[in-house]
Amino acid sequence: MREIIEKNKGIFFATGIFLLYLIPTMEKLSVILPVIASMIWFYTYLSSDNENRVMKIFNLMVYSLPVSFVSIFGQQSKLSYINWFTVFLIILIIFILIGTKDNIKKIKFDLIVKTLIVTMVGLIISYVLNLVFKNTKNSSQFIMIMLFLLTILLSYTYFKDMKVGKKELDKILTSYSKIIVLLSVGIVVQWVLYLNNIKVGRLIHFSNGRLALGLINFDFSFLSLLLVNNIFYIFYAVSKKKIKISYALPIVGLHLFASYLTSARTGLVAFVIVLFLSAFVYVILLNVFKISLRKRVMLFSGAVIVSLVILYIIASGRGFKGSGRNRINVEAVADFMESPIIGKGLGWMGYGFIVPHNFFIQFMVQAGLIFLVPLTMTLTLLLNEIRKKDTFLFLGICVSFVGAMFIPDILNSRFFLVQYMLGIISVNSNKGVENEKNSSLIE
After folding, report:
1. CA–CA separation, 197 vs 283, rounded Å?
2. Exposed (0-12), middle (13-18) or buried (19+): which is 381, by Cβ within 10 Å?
3. pLDDT digits (tens, 9 = 90+) for 415-442
4. pLDDT tens digits for range 13-59
């Protein structure tokens, strides 16, 4: 028991902070709350057995995902942009800058670095020109996107020189997976409490009877995506015999059910699309598992059946109506045609003051082609590098990408940045994750 606690102390500390911010009575201690949390975070940082401070802070970013949309001062505070995830992100940037200041001249300006720089310059040009000539400004969105791009750029250059060992990589992947399990359990507990007339965290009971659960200030669509992302890591763990199938199936079921409880269709639909396509490509066409045709057909059939069941459940519930999104997207495309190069400005909203629910449409109307084209190139190039090294991380990011076709602001989802950073670390690790069997998911 002591060994289990020691191996999962970071998860236990993260759970403690999660509960501190979830329990309503703690709101009365809004001044003391960040002090208590900071002490726990600091102890977590000190107790880490990783000697690299950048990796230590990145671990804290992963642990802080459950409270990444709530202010450090609690749920009632409107300062949600001052959250622990952002705090650790800024510290990470500072640590990387300090760690690379002596090696700036050694940085290799490969295609990915160049496209990242062009993307950042394009965003700045679009923002400044829209600010000067159209008086449209959204500084918070601009800062959020710049932080995302800067972190990717710095992480890519830093980890290219600092090779992460397979053991460290596996630990952070396992921590990420366990944090998502924690979130799924939290959603189910929130649902059970609600059934017993106890309201905790963010929940909305719509007039049509639909209940949406969001833990602590989570966007429902973001949460639904994050919860299903872990399923592909579970598949990886089973394929490498890191976890028994008897453990894996309940965890997969937990994630799917928790994603359903958010009431957002994004996660389940994105998962079904990626599951079907990946099963067809990797199992039927490429036969990556080197198994017989009979087993390949069985696996693919299982994926199809699961997909159909999920789609049936969605159709029986909310259905697949677009909630007016098509009207907003059509309006966005029309406005984009008026200013295709620099867009109409960050923060642009269409009918009903709603942001376009599509990655490409949102950024082409808000920041124009000068930003969208290099951004798409950058994310695609990085994703291709991740695909070559880690299939399961690749599939997880694909789920987020597919989901981004139905929701706005994926760059502000927190976990999307974590996914790409995990991919960058994997690409530059000493050995690929897929070639090793390390610590178990269930310990």
Report:
1. 46
2. middle
3. 999 999 999 999 988 644 444 444 444 4
4. 889 899 888 876 555 666 788 888 999 999 999 888 888 899 999 99
Phi first, then psi: give them for residue 227, nearest 5 degrees.
-65, -40
How far is Cα 225 from Cα 175, in angstroms, rounded to an integer? Answer: 18
Residue 354: beta bridge partners?
none
Task: Report the amino acid identity of residue 58.
Answer: F
Q: Are 270 and 224 in contact (CB under 8 A)?
A: no
Comparing CA positions, the residue from 149, 59, 84 lying closest to residue 422 is: 59
